[in-house]
Amino acid sequence: MKTVIVKELGQADILLPSLVAEGLAANDRIKLRLSALQAAAQHAREPNGAVADLAVESRAAGIAPAALVTLIGGAHLAGDGKIVAPGLAPLLKGIDEDAEAMLRAVAVGDRAGGEGFQARLTSLRAAGHLDASAEIEIARIGRLTGVAHEGADSLHRLVMDLHKALNRLAASHSEDIIAGARAFGIRKEDRAAVESFMRGVNQTRALKFNHPGLDATAIRSGERLIIQNDIGTTDAHVVVIAVAVNAVTVTYTDVHRSRASFFTSQLDKFAVKWSGLDRHAAAGLEENSSFFLVSGLYEARDGEDRDAFLAALGASLVFLIDWNKARKLLRNWVTKDDAVRILGWAARHRIGHRAFLELGGNELLGAAVRNAAPTRIGFGERLDQVLSRDAAMDFLKTTLQISTEALLGGQSSRLARDRIGAELVRHLDRVDNALLAIVLRQIGLAHDVAMAVFHHIADAKADPSAGKQLAARASRIEQKADRIAIEARAEIVRLNARPIIEELVDRVEEAIDELEQAAFIASLAPHATDAVLKSALVALSSIAVTAAEVAASGLAAAAEVQEGRRADSEDALAAVARLIDAEHAADAGERDITARIFAGGLDVAASLSALELARAIERSTDRFAGFGHLLRRYTMSDLSA
Question: What is the pTM of this model?
Answer without folding.
Answer: 0.61
